[in-house]
Design a protein that fits this description.
Keywords: Magnesium, Metal-binding
Strand order of the largest sheet: 7-6-5-4-3-2-9-8
Number of helices: 18
Shape: globular
Radius of gyration: 21 Å
Number of strands: 12
Largest sheet: 8 strands, parallel
Helix content: 40-55%
InterPro entries: C-C_Bond_Lyase-like, Pyrv/PenolPyrv_kinase-like_dom, Pyrv_kinase-like_dom_sf
Cofactor: Mg(2+)
Protein name: ATP/GTP-binding protein
GO biological process, one term: oxaloacetate metabolic process
Strand content: 5-15%
């Protein structure tokens, strides 16, 4: 694979669909990116589509302004949302929530609107059948989120989605959420994850990503993690996450994209520990006050957890507030250094090692190949930043557009 071929693959033009950082102007994009984010749609390769989820924002299906709030979030840079019929909806409001979900999907179909990847998190398999029965041509539904996913019950949900998808020209994708005791408890975890892998493999073409239900996982132990710690500091939860990635996130062709656990804090609080966000990058970009704003909103903890997600083979993240989206997307872009290393690794076959063009590491061509392929997929979706651009620049541009 030559460098020229790799660069061309990132520069391919596309029309329609979803593009990251849509709220930034052409001038901003040219200043920030060596290669701009490219457009993906529901016909794109599934790897690109999964990466394009970015920060997935949930919204209760009971909101009376459901259609307008989804439109506003898309205009502000959100690229995936989930209409929630499960935990965010009281039992007595279930029927109203389903009605509003169907009405919202009809509104978007009428306008032929497809500005983000839109999913519905269901409570029961019956919800899948009810909602798909109400779909009309031109709908923008990307698929369903299946909570409390286990092999036995999940197989029935996947079979139902496969059946109802037959009526449409494109697939309805599935995102299972792993969060139940059989997955978390050590004595049942391996057997359950093995069974889940077999179920997901039977529907590989429609499994967009596997999501991790961190709140439910912690709840099994009576834990609510504090904003001063990441999910990886909660050892029982980190152990479950590691098991899920180990079994379902392999890069040998048998794995799936795994998305990051939810970050659920967005307001200031009294801290026990000092902020972990370094001062230097912000001083260098004349953004010291902006750093203070991030710390005051607990976004320094989110930034740290995103970095740890990436280090553990996890892509994207579940979020509960629009302020989180800029952080996730800014750290999802490919740096010039990453891109340079990936091109060097993919430039020739046969193995061996060579110094990075940046002169600060060794690139081992065989062990790092899967990493490099992942970088190229991310480069297509989130773009490649210019050499002098850091996540601070991206975050400040995103925040400045608010």
């Amino acid at each position: 694979m030559s460098a020229d071929i790799a660069v061309d693959s990132v520069d391919l033009a596309a029309t329609g669909g979803i593009t990251q950082f849509p709220q930034l102007s052409d001038e901003q994009l040219d200043r920030l990116f060596l290669h701009r984010p490219q457009t993906v749609d529901l016909h794109s390769p599934i790897d690109h589509l999964a990466i394009a989820l970015g920060a997935t924002l949930y919204v209760p299906a009971t909101r009376d302004d459901l259609t307008s709030v989804i439109r506003r979030r898309a205009e502000s840079g959100v690229t995936s949302m989930v209409i929630d019929l499960e935990d965010a909806v009281a039992d007595e409001d279930e029927a109203t929530a389903v009605e509003r979900t169907i009405a919202t999907l009809a509104d978007f179909a009428h306008d032929n609107w497809d500005r983000l990847l839109l999913f519905v998190r269901v409570r029961t398999t019956d919800h899948i059948e009810t909602i798909t029965a109400g779909l009309v041509p031109g709908h923008c539904l990307a698929g369903f989120v299946i909570p409390k996913f286990e092999a036995e019950s999940g197989a029935a949900a996947l079979d139902t989605i496969a059946a109802v998808s037959a009526d449409w020209a494109r697939p309805l994708y599935v995102m299972p959420v792993l969060e139940t005791p059989r997955i978390v408890h050590r004595e049942t975890r391996d057997a359950e994850l093995t069974a889940i892998r077999e179920v997901l493999n039977r529907h590989r073409e429609r499994v967009l990503a596997v999501r991790i239900g961190a709140t439910d996982i912690c709840g099994l132990f009576g834990i609510r993690r504090d904003r001063d710690v990441t999910i990886y500091d909660v050892r029982v939860a980190a152990d479950a996450v590691a098991g899920i990635v180990n079994m379902l996130g392999r890069s040998d062709g048998t794995g799936f994209v795994i998305t990051g656990p939810v970050w659920e804090y967005f307001a200031n609080h009294e801290r026990m520990f000092a902020p972990t966000l370094r001062h230097t990058p912000f001083r260098e970009h004349d953004a010291v006050y902006f750093r203070q704003q991030l710390v005051s909103r607990d976004l320094d903890g989110l930034l740290r957890e995103i970095a740890l997600d990436r280090a553990n083979g996890i892509t994207g993240k579940t979020v509960i507030h629009p302020v989180h989206v800029g952080a996730v997307h800014s750290l999802s872009t490919v740096t010039d250094e990453e891109y340079s290393d990936a091109l060097d690794i993919l430039d020739r076959d046969g193995g061996g090692a060579q110094a990075s063009a940046y002169g600060n590491k060794m690139n081992e061509l065989k062990p790092h190949r899967n990493w490099a392929l992942g970088v190229m997929n991310r480069a297509h979706v989130f773009g490649v930043t210019r050499r002098d651009i850091s996540f601070v620049d991206l975050l400040t541009e995103w925040a400045g557009d608010r």
